[in-house]
Design goal:
With 296 residues, the protein is of the alpha/beta class. It has one domain: Vaccinia Virus protein VP39 (Rossmann fold), CATH 3.40.50.150. The chain contains eight helices and eleven strands. The radius of gyration is 20 Å and the shape is globular. The structure holds S-adenosylmethionine (SAM).
Length: 296
C-alpha cells in the first residue's frame, strides 16, 4: 500500500487498524474456545508430537523426552506456594510441569506461541536460508504443542491454554497469584519485556528457572558473571544456538524483577537427579512485598 503525505484518511485508517490489533488473541479463556482447542487437538497421536519432557503416563509407557524433571518438581519451582493460587505457566512445552502445577494449584493457565508461528530464531549469519530454518522451527512448535495436548489428555489434568504474543499478551487473561517462567527466558530476544508483560498481572510471585551456564566458562569469568547482573548474548553454537539467545545470571533476573516491583527474593541452584550430565539450574522466586493492610 502506498501513502502520500496529504492522504490523511488513509494514514489514519492505517494506524487505526494497528491499534485495533491490540485486541489480538483475546477471547481464548472462554469455555467454547477451550473446547474448540481441545477438539482441534483431539486426533493428535504420538506420531504428531515431539516430547521435551520425560513423562510417565501410568499406562506402562514411559514417554522419553530430553528433560527428565521427575522427582525434581519442587526444586525446579523453588518450593513456591501453590495451594489455592491462580497460576500462569509461560512456555509449558510437553506439560510435565503443567500436570504438577495443576495438581497443586486452584486454576492453571498455560501460555505458549501462537499457532503457525516459530520461536524467535537467533539470526546466525552462516545460515543462508533462514526461511527454511523457520519452516522447520514452525513444525517443531506444532509438534511440541501437540505433545502438551497429548499429555493433558492422557493424564487428565485441568488447565486452560492460551496461544499469543509473549510481548503483548491479550488483556483478558485476568490476574494471577503466581507466574512461572521455566527455562524460557533464554529463548527470548527480550527476556525483560516478557517478564514485564506478565508482571503487570501477577499479584504475588514470579518464579524463574533457567540454566546456570557457568561451567562452560572459566571459574573466574563464571564467578564474576554470575555474581553480577549479567547476561551473555548468543552463548551457544549451532544447532542449539538457533534458539539460545542468552545465558542469564540469577542476579540479572533479580535486577529485572526488582525494577518490576518485586522486592523479596530467594535464589537456589539445583540439578535434576535424573539428568546427572546436564548443567545445573537456578531458580529465582521473587515476591512482591506483602500488603500490611494498615490504612495510612
Ligand atoms: C525449553 S521449553 C521449557 C519447558 C518448561 N517450561 C520447563 O521448564 O520444563 C520452552 C517453552 O517456551 C515456549 N516458547 C519459546 N519461545 C516462546 C515465545 N516467544 N512465546 C511463547 N512461548 C515461547 C516453547 O514453545 C516451550 O513451550
Amino acid at each position: 500500500m502506498r501513502f502520500s503525505v496529504d492522504n490523511e484518511k488513509t494514514i489514519d485508517a492505517y494506524f487505526g487498524d494497528q491499534r485495533s490489533l491490540k485486541a489480538r488473541y483475546e477471547g481464548q479463556l472462554t469455555p467454547s474456545f477451550q473446547s474448540a482447542l481441545d477438539d482441534y487437538h483431539a486426533k493428535v497421536t504420538e506420531r504428531d508430537a515431539v516430547f521435551y519432557h520425560t513423562i510417565d503416563f501410568g499406562d506402562g509407557v514411559l514417554q522419553k523426552g530430553a528433560w527428565d524433571l521427575r522427582d525434581h518438581e519442587q526444586a525446579y519451582l523453588g518450593g513456591c506456594e501453590l495451594s489455592g493460587k491462580r497460576v500462569l505457566e509461560v512456555g509449558p512445552a510437553s506439560g510435565f510441569l503443567s500436570a504438577y502445577l495443576a495438581s497443586k494449584c486452584a486454576d492453571l493457565v498455560v501460555f505458549d506461541l501462537p499457532l503457525g508461528s516459530t520461536s524467535e530464531l537467533v539470526p546466525f549469519s552462516e545460515i543462508e536460508n533462514m526461511d527454511e530454518f523457520a519452516t522447520g522451527a514452525r513444525r517443531s512448535v506444532e509438534q511440541l504443542r501437540n505433545s502438551w495436548w497429548l499429555t493433558k489428555r492422557k493424564l487428565g489434568f485441568k488447565a486452560s491454554a492460551v496461544y499469543a504474543d509473549i510481548y503483548d499478551p491479550p488483556s483478558d487473561l485476568g490476574r494471577f497469584d503466581v507466574a512461572v517462567f521455566g527455562s524460557i527466558l533464554l529463548h527470548l530476544s527480550n527476556p525483560f519485556h516478557a517478564l514485564q508483560s506478565f508482571a503487570a498481572t501477577t499479584d504475588s510471585t514470579i518464579v524463574v528457572t533457567d540454566v546456570l551456564g557457568v561451567q562452560s566458562l572459566s571459574p573466574e569469568v563464571g564467578q564474576s558473571l554470575y555474581g553480577s547482573a549479567n547476561m551473555i548474548f548468543a552463548p551457544s553454537p549451532l544447532p542449539s544456538g538457533i534458539v539460545h539467545w542468552w545465558a542469564l545470571s540469577p542476579n540479572a533476573i533479580r535486577h529485572m524483577l526488582h525494577k518490576l516491583g518485586f522486592t523479596e527474593f530467594e535464589v537456589t541452584t539445583h540439578s535434576p537427579k535424573r539428568m546427572p550430565s546436564s548443567p545445573p539450574l537456578f531458580t529465582v522466586v521473587a515476591r512482591r512485598a506483602a500488603k500490611s493492610g494498615l490504612k495510612r
